[in-house]
Amino acid sequence: MKDKNTTVIKAMELLTLFKTYESLSLLQLSKLTGMPKTTVYRMVLSLAESRFLKKNHHGEYELGLGFLQYGQLVRERLDIRKVAIPVMRQLKDELGEAVNLIVQENEEAIYIEKIETDKPVRVFTGIGRSAPLYAGACPRVLLAFMPEEEREKYIDSVKLEPIASGTITDKVELKERLKETRAKGYTVSHAELHDDSSAIAAPIFDHGHHIFAGLSIVGPENRFRNPEILASLTGRVKKAADEISRLIGWEG
After folding, report:
1. pLDDT for 208-241, tens place per residue?
2. What is the C-alpha separation between 157 and 251, in angstroms, rounded?
3. In this structure, is the dihedral angle defined by the CA atoms of residues 123, 129, 135 and 141, taken in order, positive or negative?
4. Domain boundaries, the chain
């Protein structure tokens, strides 16, 4: 504790307040931190000069563009695969099923990482493969949690082509499944991209609570049809997706 810079700690304590409050006056900052007004004033001047804070037209302080610029750099340099792989490996070891990581690119879902199962009967999904957002658990979880206007525009314009025997081809049914996915926090698919295969997917969110990626397990359909087993699997997939979300800044 003696080696820590108390000025930096106090500055962080002050900045943390802006996670709760959009703007604060010097007096409010002093009361909330318990620091003398003169101390707060000096810190605020330094933070404003560094563009981490700015004064608004009411004379109160709010977060400045410095955070936006650093936040963008962090986002650009963050490789979701490096963060996700240890969690994916643990999930595969626990459940024995293949684990996929997927992101959206334009109007498709792209598989960017996979941890393969050791079981002899498996479903092949290659890294770099794409799928429409309406078909399969992992693509659909991306669609379910995208902004409403963007989601509705996609549904209105897309033609729901059958890919496998269980592909959803009715837009009313698709909207119901998406609504259910948002309510439950996960989605399940059976034979939507491949016959005799099933998948369970959950969303990965970023620090801004936006959908960032999707995590899924996939395997032969007969292993996912048992209700008790399915309930256990869905809970574990959700937990793993939440863990990855927290690692990239989501606070739940």
Report:
1. 899 999 999 998 888 888 888 888 899 999 999 9
2. 34
3. positive
4. 6-74, 78-247
